[in-house]
Amino acid sequence: xETIVGSIILKENKILMVKESKKACYGKWAFPAGHLExxxxxxxxxxxxxxxxxxxxxxxxxxxxxxxxxxxxxxxxMIHFLANLIEEDAEYKTDEILERxxxxxxxxxxxxxxxxxxxxxxxxxxxxxxxxxxxxxxIIKEI
Length: 143
Hints:
The protein has 3 helices and 9 strands; from the N terminus they run E-E-E-E-H-E-E-E-E-H-H-E. By secondary structure, the chain is of the alpha+beta class. It has one domain (2-137): Nucleoside Triphosphate Pyrophosphohydrolase. Strands 1, 2, 3, 4, 5, 6, 7, 8 and 9 form a 9-stranded mixed β-sheet that branches. A hairpin with an 8-residue loop joins strand 2 and strand 3.
């Protein structure tokens, strides 16, 4: 089972999205997220992935419902946090990401499904934002 962690940075009704450079999902928009590393907490991983992909330092505020995606090859647990932006490096660049952009929720709703790495994840996150469906971050207990 793989664990993917990341964050949703919401500012002025816009979300910071990244355009992937990996071959399998080249040119697709996604939330900043990635694999949890060995001996890393979920919170540490989400902050690290956000920093690596966006150059943004964040504080994790709430957690979204957890997604479980089962495929032929692997089962994936996805944990996304609603994050407060602490610091943004507007000039940040990385080989992992082609572009980063603040995209309004309304614009995201009008985009084509195939523009996203995982439309199902985006759709569910947007629905959670609209419903104000978040949980306290301390719901995750690491022992």
